[in-house]
Amino acid sequence: MTIKNPYRKNAKHSRQKTIKLIEYFCADLTATNTSKLLWLRRSTVNNWYNYFREVIYWYSSKERKEVLNWVIEMDESYFWAKRVRWKRWRWAGEKIKVFGLLKREWKVYTHIVDDVKASTLLPIIRWKVGLGSTLNTDKFRPYDGLVDLWYKKHHRVNHWENEFARWKQHINWIESFRSYCKSPIIRKIKRNKET
Range of 121's domain? Predict the structure, then answer.
């Protein structure tokens, strides 16, 4: 007897439909649009979307305990669904602050933080980054205490002087990850402006 759907027990539809569901979930389609495209009930699509989110959460919580070693890039990001005109850059109080660590083998750890002060970021760094690692950051003030935490190799790039890379010392990969994360938000804003 062959299994009808290897992705989930007791699934009522075929493997091909599940693959389409995964594609539409990754493409950030709503459950309503997916149900219309696949001729499924919206409650079924919602059920599958929640299942995908639970699996993603399970894998991310499993990897949360992992300590990152080797060459690590660090940067903070600010996310907001729409542009706040009167508040800019780091002074935007309502924006969601996300701290990101990237291992140079494309393993990323992100953490939503209340503020981007050293008292908030340094415990996360100490918890997630191994002591023998090489750290690459920009010259943001909370990263000043990293040498005091026994990280001997700490390289900085000064964005204020238009310095973005010094040989292999850069934070370009974590910044490109941030722009990759922000691109769906920007697409939604453009779609809303067009309608």
Answer: 71-194
